[in-house]
Amino acid sequence: MVLQWSLFFMYICIKVTPTEASSWTAAVPSSVKGLLGSCVVIPCSYNYPEPQKSPQTFTGIWYNNDNQVICHSDASQTPAQFWSRTKLLGDLSKKNCSLMIDKLTRRDEGTFHFRIIMEAYTVFSYSKNKISVSVIDEPNPTDFSVQEEVKEGQTVSASCSVFHSCPTYPPSFHWSHSGEQHFQAQKLHDGQWKATSILMFRSNRTDHNKLLQCRVTYHGGKHQETSKTLKVQYAPVNVKVEYQSVNEGETAHLKCSSDANPVSSYEWHSETGALLNKGQTYTMSNVSRHSIESVYCTAVNEEGQDRSSTMKLNVLYPPDIRTSSKCFSEDDVVKCECIVESRPPSMVHFVLGDRVLQSTSIETVGSVTTGTLQTDFGSFKFVHCLANNTLGNANLTFLLPATDNMQNIFIASGAGVIVLIILIATGVGVVRKCRGRSGETPTSDLGTMKAERPVELPRYAPTKRKEDRKDMSCSDIYANDHLYGNTDCDESIYNNV
Ligand SMILES: *[C@@H]1O[C@H](CO)[C@@H](O)[C@H](O)[C@H]1NC(C)=O
Ligand SMILES: *[C@@H]1O[C@H](CO)[C@@H](O)[C@H](O)[C@H]1NC(C)=O
Ligand SMILES: *[C@@H]1O[C@H](CO)[C@@H](O)[C@H](O)[C@H]1NC(C)=O
Ligand SMILES: *[C@@H]1O[C@H](CO)[C@@H](O)[C@H](O)[C@H]1NC(C)=O
Ligand SMILES: *[C@@H]1O[C@H](CO)[C@@H](O)[C@H](O)[C@H]1NC(C)=O
Known about the structure:
Residues 139-231, 236-314 form the Ig-like domain. Keywords: Disulfide bond, Membrane, Signal, Transmembrane, Transmembrane helix. This is Si:dkey-238d18.5. InterPro entries: CD80_C2-set, Ig-like_dom, Ig-like_dom_sf, Ig-like_fold, Ig_sub, Ig_V-set. β35 (382-389) and β36 form a beta hairpin. The chain folds into 4 domains: 23-136, Immunoglobulin-like; 143-229, Sandwich (Immunoglobulin-like), CATH 2.60.40.10; 240-313, Immunoglobulin-like (Sandwich); 336-495, no CATH class. The strands form 9 sheets. Strands 2, 5, 6, 9, 10 and 11 form a 6-stranded mixed β-sheet that branches. Strands 21, 28, 29, 30, 33 and 34 form a 6-stranded mixed β-sheet that branches. It starts with a helix and ends with a helix. It contains 9 helices and 36 strands. It is an alpha+beta fold.
């Protein structure tokens, strides 16, 4: 039965196909695909043999295969279930019978035909020009294209296109990247349209390996996404030397890194520009704190080149106490300065007798740390400086400046000295006693002490003769006794005071 009808229609079609301008024909596609939930527009134009008097009033009606009205040009005559969903888009008086069916459902699938009522002329059903509507659940895949690889700064042109059959509400495009957008609509056959969005932007290294996404939203809410990874070629940037601190005498491994596409090749240069090595790494064996030159690396690719900043190795070594370290007196105050060279900087402290003392102040300039100690050294002759860092330690013993103590004693016992001078000048008894007892007292430190002596010394010096040498030593020794211990002389003077 169906076959017979089909054959019948085919026969009709073949017979009617060579349409003349004024015959009862309608130009519609035989089938149109629509997206579920979206709209479908059936392009339609009809024709009729021109009557003597042109018709003025037109009424158009679309029927489904159950001969049910689905759309009436007088909307009030459209059944409720189609009322808000179907619409005659064209101008009937201009022979345009295009129909839109919105919010497409599965039940809309089927065949439709058009009927025209021309007042004061005739009524005609174009039942030979049936149109079949089919509903698809998902849109066809998006056609997405963008250059595989671009150079930084070049214009990227990406295009995203889809097919649809709802030209009234064409799909909207949303791009993941900003840029200039162009929209194109192209009419195809069978009610199909091709919607294309073209995005153009200047490529940037920040786009490299980023997804460029095109999102298409169809009327009705269905959407689909496609994306491609952008590949941007750019010259090296962020050229850096990576390395770790290395102990003196060991081997340093330097690595150069950069951000580039395609990957960089590397060269190493000394500060003066001399080529040291080619390759991403550079090895320096037996590094020393002194012999390290500054180096930099250069990264090169097809797009350009860049260099790192100049870097100096951080060579670590244990402390080395400089021989210029010393104890000295300044404004009657004894200070000990311990100058230590090391990397990383050392901790510096002092040992006085059995006490460990923190440095009074500590100053670090580059690899040099200076610890200063200022304290009451009492009667100690030596102080030790200890320096340590993570790699080791060092120590140095300082002789405390004895002269300074002596000077203090002289001032402190000024009265005693005056008494002593009086004694030297007037009485020989004490002196003799002293001479007798301290005849063999060592006088080794005399020279140094004299150099630092207060002005009192020349006062009695001229009065002395060579024989008085021992009297002199006696008083010197007295002063020195507080450092070196007791003598008979000391005792006697005290006794006399
Ligand atoms: C019919 O009308 C529709 C809607 O206005 C329009 O898009 C279409 O181009 C017209 N068709 C013809 C053949 O003029
Ligand atoms: C790449 O983008 C950054 C910031 O987004 C900009 O500063 C730079 O100039 C851009 N480079 C090029 C070549 O357009
Ligand atoms: C390492 O260098 C030092 C001098 O900087 C040298 O005395 C020593 O022999 C060197 N060691 C080796 C293994 O080359
Ligand atoms: C130095 O030695 C002291 C005492 O032994 C220790 O507490 C300190 O951590 C050491 N400092 C370093 C940098 O090794
Ligand atoms: C001082 O250094 C020497 C080696 O130079 C070492 O034998 C000694 O133990 C060190 N003294 C202290 C108190 O660290």
